[in-house]
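Request: Could I get any protein with tokenized structure?
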Amino acid sequence: MVTNKGLPLRLFVELTSLLMPRLFSILSPIALFASVMFVYNRMLADRELVIMQAAGISPWKNARAAIYVGFILALFSVYVQNVGIPSAENSFRNLEWEIRNNVSHLMFREGEFNTIKSNMTVFISSHEDDGSVSGILLHDETNPDKKVTLSAERGRIVYTQSGPKILLIKGERQEISRNGGQFSSLQFERYSVDFGVMGGKAIKPASAREKSLWQLLNADSDSSLDDEDKRKYIVEGHRRLITHGIIWYLHYWLVRDY
């Protein structure tokens, strides 16, 4: 969408950044595990651990630093899993819906003929600072019996429950029938054109990742969920609980024999 539809690079960066908490929860235990393994193997190869044990330092003291780091990461993972990821997933879902349904920025490019649907083409001269568009030319062939061409000085995109519409101000509507070739013209002060179902999708329902741990573990008491969603919520809740313990245990298991 950034390349083909002319969306700003800022939106791509924002969408990508909202996926970072999810990647952090996957990569951080692996990265810390590899780091601890590298450090202790290096200390073992350089005989530093042997010297420390010969000096009377217990294996527990040697492993304590890694265990503390793993414990801190486990606490931070609790925050990421229960606050960071649900918030980021919710923001990502809302931003994705806004991009897909914000027709004025997604579909209307200045100085170009924009094909909204297979039988509707729109040309605009410029986007104004107040969100309106100016210099509008619209060709509509949605009705198989006639062709309609509209021109207007300016207009604005409005959003309704049935989908986006364009409100044209101070323009002219020209119509020609396909059968008899009858031509008619009408000047107007205000005129609206419906884009149909395009871009009118409802926002997707919240997923299990957007819910808090309390909501996940108490999904059985939520009457708005069906049996399949309840099972998904409970599985996600237990997955979060297990993830936090695994981070600490992996590092304890790694360093316990040093």
Observations:
- The radius of gyration is 30 Å.
- Residues 108-194 form one domain.
